[in-house]
Amino acid sequence: MTSRRKAVLLGSAAVVLGVGARMARQMRPAYASAQVFEVAHSDAEWQRILTPAQYNILRQQGTEPPFSSPLLNQHGKGVFNCAGCGLPLFSSATKFDSGTGWPSFWQPLPQAVLTSVDDSGEEERTEVHCRRCGGHLGHVFPDGPQPTGLRYCMDGLALTFTPAGAAG
Question: How much is the pTM?
């Protein structure tokens, strides 16, 4: 009876600890607010600068519905930039159709993005951020095309597009 009671208590404690750890992950501040970046604004300033949907994605780690971004069908030559600070992030030469419903790239521009562990969902993922303002851009997965084998799955609202030859 004692060993059975211990097993029940240990099992209950494990469940409570697991739920507590998940709640702690969900309640911790977003990555961008825990770092110091070259481009920094107060929360109120970000809300004035960005649209509500951009703010949700870039500053609160939200996502847009799949197949909703006009940038999904942007196939012209140019550069995809951070919608928060304008930093060039991806060349159109690395964009590909992943079939996922979000703009996808196999490689960012040099020193354009940072990554962090995102354990807020059911499984751990690698989150992608703008290196200059810390804005959440999307996630990177190891199922992309060669030469990198990576798929940078980005929220289109976190990006802007500058056509090749346009003044930046």
Answer: 0.79
Residue 88, beta-bridge partner list: 81
Is 82 one of the catalytic residues? no
Domains of the chain in start order, with CATH, are: 2-163 (2.170.150.20)
Ranges under pLDDT 50 in the chain: 1-2, 5-33
Using CB atoms within 10 Å of the CB of residue 107, give its burial: 0 to 12 exposed, 13 to 18 middle, 19+ buried.
middle
Q: Are 135 and 147 in contact (CB under 8 A)?
A: no
Q: Which two tokens stand for residue 87?
A: 């930093």
Encode burial over 38-58: b for 16+ CB neighbours within 10 A, e otherwise: eeebeeeebeeebeeebbbbb
